[in-house]
Amino acid sequence: MTTDAGTEVPAGGPAPVTVELLGVLAYGELSAFDRLAEDARAAPTLTGRAQLSAMAAAEIGHFRLVEDHLGGAGVAVADAMAPFTALIDSYHASTAPRSWLESLVKAYLGDGLGADFYREVAGWVDPATGELVRRVLADTGHSAFAEREVRAACEANPHQRDRLALWGRRLLGEAVTHAQRVVAERDELAEFIVGGSGSGGVAGLIRTVQAAHGKRMGRLGLS
Amino acid sequence: MTTDAGTEVPAGGPAPVTVELLGVLAYGELSAFDRLAEDARAAPTLTGRAQLSAMAAAEIGHFRLVEDHLGGAGVAVADAMAPFTALIDSYHASTAPRSWLESLVKAYLGDGLGADFYREVAGWVDPATGELVRRVLADTGHSAFAEREVRAACEANPHQRDRLALWGRRLLGEAVTHAQRVVAERDELAEFIVGGSGSGGVAGLIRTVQAAHGKRMGRLGLS
């Protein structure tokens, strides 16, 4: 049995679409690690650098949960990730932060967007995978740091606030565009989302994610 | 009470020299995270990238143990690290890997050098700090990956082996030079090492570290 993407899935293992979802999730975590680690270098203080580095390290903790889960089902995480690296790299290239505050906003909103999507999906996959996804998405307690830093900067400087609000909206737009490209290339994934989300379909899922994004913008002081 | 480096230490808190040692340890971990994360990007495979990223993340786990320990004693880790960032950054700048294999050799030997030094020191500080240091140095199980990769590359290519052996010796030389500069600038730290190491002094400690380095070179197939 192989997935749309051509990944070998052992007989009796997880459904191919589940492997695809976990492949996207795993590479999402690994690439987020990479971007956060790079952004941490530009931190204005050692404390900020340590905080963003800790956020990056938490992504690897999540990545390893997915790796172990797939490994237990006989699927190498590298194989599951491979079909999705180019598109996720393209998302990050199109949203490279140009400042420390842009890094924090991206870390916070990006984590949230991924979590919204996978929280919906967790109910549509087999129970063991659903449980894994919920563990991976558990808040690691780092978000309070980003909220505090961004809110303080916005309160001190309304012009900064406007620019970051624009940045937050652009991040949503790029994320949706890239997610649509992933789904457009994978019929099974599209069917899976339509089947899971009921009458709402992919568009309904996007609306759910958009609403949650708006609330998160509010918590950063950007709405 | 302040350390040589000027860090405020609360009355009844850890000895100033202990704060200095933990400051070096903490920034050693944070900067190792940063270098490993950058090196992971150059991995030839997704599996290698995930492995080096996991090594980087483990450094942050260690960093946070030190941060919590210092925090419990009323010392901000950023203050404890600040006096040592320039010298440790200088070590990394002088030993920037130019290839994936150089990255692995540096990760493996660098972790080992730090561990050797702190294992000696763990017996000379207060018991709680000694216990912390031993936990921080516990092998995270990532070293087997570096050993395997480097050995395989060396067996396949003796020329590669010679170049990496030279690299391994240079890493030791740079580490010793930089460590000597740290000690030379801090009288209390020098006295602490002389006091702890008995008649061997700083030179004896360096010999101990050198011997262990040679054994590690052997495990990589580089002796």
From TrEMBL, chains A, B:
Residues 18-196 form the Ferritin-like domain. CDD domains: Ferritin_like. SUPFAM superfamilies: Ferritin-like. Pfam families: MiaE_2. This is Ferritin-like fold-containing protein.
